Amino acid sequence: MAEPERRLWSKDFILALVICIFLSFVFYLLVTSMAEYAVTRFAASDTVAGFTASAFVVGALIARIFTGAFLDVLGRYRVLIVSLGASVAASLLYLLADSLWLLIVVRLLHGMTFGVGHTAIMAAVQSIIPPARRAEGTGYFSTSTTLAAALGPFIALTVIADLGYDWLFVVSTAFTLVGFVGLFFLRVPELDSRYVPRVGLTTFHPRNLLDRDGLRIGGVMFLCGIAYSSVMAFLFGYTSQMGMAHAAPYYFLSFACFSLIARLTLGRVQDRYGDNVVVYPLFVCFFAAMVLVAATQATWMIVLAGMLAGVGFGSLMASAQAITITAAGPARVGVATSTYFLMMDLGFGMGPILLGTLVGTFSYEAMYLVAAGVVFAAGVLYLLVHGRFARRRVRGGGRRAG
């Protein structure tokens, strides 16, 4: 029987995982359907429809900047209750949005509530996971995103086809409500009162809004987010141009499956043998996936690229988060978590804009080769900011860094 202090699968860990699954589902239910909804309901142009979809991310980015600073001041549990309660209300507002600009405002507000809630639950679970099993626990917990990314779009398309958009918003509200109710059964350890910062003018100082370790590893994930956004934004158009539109769903299915398998196994390896043993091979897989997408000539190549990206980028998100939290320490978990996701979301948001210009000027293939180069640059940055300082982790012990 495991020792109490090393127990990972506690009631609170499982409950937090379930809550995060429902929260992530809401994101993927709506992000894949909002652009088409804006066109269908309000005859929006492609540009405005795209902004309608991305307004959610903009709202989340704004919220993440300030969430970390106030998470431990106000209390993690209190922030969770307020943010998920507000998210339930925001989900209902979709049913009342009778103009395009009102829909965009709702998307911004919903993104803000999601950004606060997602940051809070991610920070809260780090206080539940035993420190010696940080990477393993983070890997298990991040499967919530994998499941949502795989099933969310499928559920959304099915509901829209059979029942319509209004029922999609009802389902979104119901999922959020389940997560909100689950909070009343969750116990969240709060930061020791000795480390709780006081609220004042210095609260808005950059060091209280952003974490240095979060920025270092977050910078790596910013580049990775830019690279992977090329797949999220342009894979369907790329495969359609080649007459292989049917292949795109197989990419995401294989990505989800192999990401899930990798996350369930690699966290334990990272805890026992250190970060570099896991992270460097993940960069190799991610780089190979982007090159393979650029060279795609058949469906099997798209599927293989999805497998490699699932292992590479899918696992890298969890491994990098574990590195960030461990480096930041317990007193900075909230700010570090906020900074990490802020940087990665920024990459997801800027990627389509930066890489999309290459499609019109050159080609999809050229864009994906550039994305592979961005992955390589991210690997070099990891080496500079963390990899060269990392030491082998002693089993059951902490990390040493030079």
- Which percent range fits the helix content? over 70%
What is the makeup of the main sheet? none
CATH class of the largest domain: Mainly Alpha
Order of helices and strands: HHHHHHHHHHHHHHH
- What distance separates the N and C termini? 35 Å
What's the gyration radius in Å? 20 Å
- CATH level-4 homologous superfamily of the largest domain: MFS general substrate transporter like domains
Bulk shape? globular
Poorly predicted runs of 5 or more residues = 392-402
Mean pLDDT: 84
Helix and strand content put the structural class at mainly alpha
Any chance you could write out the topology, listing elements then pairs?
Elements: H1 11-31, H2 34-42, H3 46-74, H4 76-93, H5 100-126, H6 134-141, H7 143-162, H8 165-182, H9 206-209, H10 212-241, H11 247-273, H12 275-294, H13 299-328, H14 333-361, H15 364-387
